[in-house]
Write a structure and sequence with these properties.
mainly beta, Lipocalin, Immunoglobulin-like, 7-stranded mixed sheet
Length: about 500
Amino acid sequence: MKHINQSGPIILFHDTLLCLGNGVDHDTFDYYAVFMSKIDLNGNFLKRYIDIEPQRLNVYNQTNNAFVQNDSLLVCIDSNGNKNANGYLMIYRIGTGEILKKIPFISQTDDTAFLHDMIKINDSIYAVLLTIQESLNSQYADSQICIINIKTDSVKYVIFGKKDISDSPTFLHWTGSSFLVGTGYLDPPFIIGQYIKRNIEGIIYEVDLAGNFKIVHRTDSMRGPIFKLFKTKLGEYICTSHYGKHYQKTDPNNFYPKIRLRVFKLNKNFVQIWEKPWSLDFEIDYYYKSTNIIETQQQDGYLLAGYQVNYAYNLTEKEIDSLWQNGIALMTVGILEKINEDGERQWLRSYSLVSNPEQSPNHELNDIIYSPDGGYYMYGTLRFAPMPDDSIGWAPTWLLKVDQYGCLVPGCQNGDTVSVTEETSQNELLIYPNPSSDVLFIYDDKGGESKYTIADIKGNAIRKWSGNLKDHTYIVQLHDFSPGVYIVSRVDDGGRMRSGKFVKGR
């Protein structure tokens, strides 16, 4: 499998991490085969199982959830927009990767299934939120909840909405007697300049087992679809969405969306208690996603995971071109933020891989789970633009292990620049591990436009890049570094320098 298309969920199974996704081998033309990789708790690759059965173009893609039951793994796989390739609930034997069972969601061979979420009701019953499109070229689609009994292989459909529900619902939640479904509703069109615009309102529906539904929460027209919902121990709800409005950039007749991710809390009756912005502290107009909400292991707040592009919406085209010319890749970075019960930020971390700027990496974090030591594992996809000798962009997965403070570099939560191992001056960068033979983490707690260089002891520059984010960790792979001593330096836009030293082992 030469190219990963999309990372899926990550599951902790005893002392092994199960990382799922799909990918493409352009040599054998096995398209979008589903894989399950087994990784140990230190991030070492153990084994990969690939479902090579789907060999038709763009056949399978998996949804964003999976569950372990005994020694089996349950995961939903959809048709990725192709007819005659129905979605399935797949049950794998974890030890061997053998497919134990395939339970189809839909029986009509001309239908197309798009999966959105999967939840567990009990050990036998699972529910999947999906959209059914009657044929490839049809504009008609139904939102459905598919209830599956894995012991009897029985499938029950709860069809709801039709004309009233958006074709792209976002989450599914079981209350014990009914379902909560998140989606977005398109407002009637309105005119700005010479353009017709439509806003999306966030909607939460309550759906009973007969398919009857009602709106229990509705945002105003300047809010987008509700991405995620987490129910607290007190029966309240933490949700993520975004602010959305239009602004004029340079063309008087062209308007762009002005976006800021937000988090809000609802009480038991779905009335909003508070609303706060989250993610990087500027508004954007491109490429962002809120992917998960979990409670911290210490039960003192909540973690919001996702990704966002690392520049503000109001940059001019000239300024963007200047950033590219100066080697600053306009890319998305992975984001992890902790909030308290009142939505106040406790800390925010972001992460990116240092790479060739021409590759324009985008860093997606698609899932986060607890680690046994009180920290967290995060899993996602790195998307690279095509290189001159490669007509197809490549997208490997990446797996991060952070501590309870979201740190890749131990001690990053202290807010100062002391070394991990000893007291140093305020001018020394936080670098970890040191020495290292594989990968290096460099933590920048200051932010602001800065240039970074890694040079050998003779002063020869080995790696250069630019950055602009505070509380950001740069990840540097060392496989092409020779053993020896290296200096990392950072120069901000005021000419102030900070540096650090590390040893590359064999």
